[in-house]
Each structure stands twice: as structure tokens, then as C-alpha cells.
Amino acid sequence: MSDGPWVAPGSTPPPEPPPAPAPYPPPGYAAAPPPGYAPAPPPGYAPAPPPGYATQPPFPGPRAAPSAGPTWAELEFRPGIIPLRPLGLGDMYGAVTKAIRGNVAATMGLALLTSVVCLVPTTALGAWIASQDTLALTDDELTGEAGGVYGMLGTYLPAVGSLVSSIALTGFLAYVIGQAVLGRKVGIGETWDGTKRRLPAVGAAVLLTLVGAVVLLGLLLAVPVLLLVEGGFSAGPVLLLVLALLASVLLYLWLWTRLAFVTAVIVLEGRGVLSAFARSWRLTSGAPFWRILGIRVLTAMVVGFAAQVITVPITIGGIVAVLALGGEEQLFMWQAILTGIATLVSGAITTPFSAGVDALMTIDQRIRREGLDVQLIHAAQQGGPAPWPNAAGAR
């Protein structure tokens, strides 16, 4: 019996089916590419460099923006009104403004109280002295019966009270600013306790400075003035006087800067008068002299402008009112009173700012030269000793 399919007798057998083609390529077999064929790179990839070509790192493109995190200002350690690092002008002005707004009683309140205590007696005395020199209308001109001497003396007498007030306020504000740097808010009572023993030294330092300035000014101007008196207004003496005045201004600015920290050193470091002079001299030496001078000049301009904005309207308005009411005979007396009132108001507003800037410059210079910020951080974080006395803790 045959193995093929059954075929009926007399019929034609069917053709054989073609063999099944073999799979191409066989599974697992990678056919070799034709000679000279280079496969294309996958999408998104750069073609491979030719052999022997030295590749360079890709040019760095713009980096992605970093994720939002704390700024440098947020990372600064700031226990009080300033960050414990070298300060800029904006840091100082902002810190003083913050101290005044956050502690009105110990800054503007104490300034007003001190101004009242110092200015009321001197203004009253000045008004009495000025009243001895009355004005009379003769030949359409106002003339003083005493030649205006008493009137001028009484008018400028409130300035003496303002000077005494500013001396005390610089000591008070140095204490307030020193405690505010450590994050402490003080009251009027504590400020008085912390500075009352230092005020005599502050007054002596200011008096010594004024006497020294008058002596130096006299030495510089004595020769030119004598030459003018003896030889008249000739070119030589006048030129010499101009040069002497210019030298006086430069000498004043130099000493004004070198002795800028005397009051703050007396209050914050408890030093005596001569030691405070030497200390301020060392802290202001070298290149920082110009920075300190610039800040003090700018602060004086700002404070002076603010004071004029306050005093000029009060003085002019008061004089116009006196003349309108027919009180021109006692104009000197009213001018002394108006000067005292204007000085009291402007001193209470502007003196805390200038005194606070001087105190902060002292602290800033100690940070820059002595690493005071390290001691301040230790005192604030670990309860170490503060760099200046605390009247509340000494009770």
C-alpha cells in the first residue's frame, strides 16, 4: 500500500504542494548590512563623529531657575534692629528709623522731655533779656533802644539749651541703640539708669571739644585778622583770611570725624573722657575715615533740611502774627520765644536720628575691625556677656 494520497483508477494525480519558504532572516539572526552602509542614528541623537575626531563638551546653555528658597536677608542672624555683619548706609538709616518707630517713648519721648527741661529755662531767660531791648518806629525804621545787643543775646540764648539737650540725647540714644541691637526694648527709666552716671563724662567731652575748636580757630584766624585791622582791606590780608577760613573748615571736618564716636564709646564702653578720645581716634583711622565723613555729612544735611522744614514756618508765621497784632515793640522777645519753640520741636524729631546713626556707626566700625559680631551672636544665642552694660540686669 502506497503512502501517497489515494487516486481513483484512471484519474490524474494532483500536483505536489511547493515547499514552505524558510523564514528570513531566521530568528535570532542579524543580517550583515551591505558594504559601505551606515545606519541612521535613532531620532533625537546626533550622528557619531568620524574616527579620530576629538569631541568637545557641549556649550553650556541657560540653567534652569533654582527652586525658591530663603534669601540671603532671611538667612542673616538679626536678633535686633541690625543684621550682625558690616552695615551699609541703608542698614543704618533703616535700623535707626525702626528703633524710633518701635520705641517712641525712649527716643522721641525722651528727646521731647529732655528738650523741655533744657529749653524752657533758657528760652524764658532769653525772652526776659530780649524784652529789655524794645524796638521803636522812627523815620520809618525799626531801631532798638539798646542797640539790639540784648535782643540778639536773648534770641540766641535758646541755642545754649539746645546744645545741652543734644549732649544728653546723644548719651541716651547710644544706650537705646545698643540695647536695640541685642533685641531689647527699653523704657525711659532704664535709659536714665543706664546713662545718668555717664552724662558728666559726655558733657565734659563736648565741652573739651568746643574749647579746643575755639582755640584752634583763634590760632588760625588771629594773624589774618590782625593784618586786616592794621593794614586795611588789602589783597594780601584778605587772601590770607580766605585761606585761614578754608583751613578752619577742613580742620573742623577732620576733627569732627575723628572724634565722632566719643559719646557712644563713653556710654557703651564706660570709658573716661581722655580714653574715649583715644578710642574714637583709633576707630576712625585709615581708609574708614572717608566713609564715616561721608555718612556724617549726608546725615547732617538730611537732619538740617528736616529741621529747617520745621523751624522756618514756625518762626516766620510767629513773626507775621506778632507784627499783625501790633507787637513789634517786643519783637526781640517774641523772636526768642519762637526760636525756643521751633528748636524744641525740631530737636525732639531730628536729634534721635542723628544720634542713633552715630551710635550705629560706632558698632559697625567695631564689627569691621574687632569682630564684634561674633560676641553679639554669642550673647544673643548662648547667653554670653553683652559687649555693653545693661542697666536692667544690674539692678
Question: What key phrases describe this protein's structure?
Answer:
mainly alpha; 395 residues; 2% strand
The number of helical runs is 13
> What is the strand arrangement across the widest sheet?
1-2
Runs with pLDDT <50, length 5+? 53-67, 69-74
Structural class, from secondary structure content? Answer: mainly alpha
Calculate Rg over CA atoms: 43 Å
The oligomeric status of these chains comes to single chain
Please state the average pLDDT score.
Answer: 80
- Any idea what the shape is? elongated
Strand content: under 5%
Account of the 3D structure:
This protein has 395 residues and is an all-alpha fold. It has a domain at 80-193 and 286-394. It is built from 13 helices and two strands, in the order H-H-H-E-E-H-H-H-H-H-H-H-H-H-H. It has a two-stranded antiparallel sheet. Helix 3 runs antiparallel to helix 4 (149-181). The chain is elongated, with a radius of gyration of 43 Å. It starts with 71 loop residues before the first helix and ends with a helix.
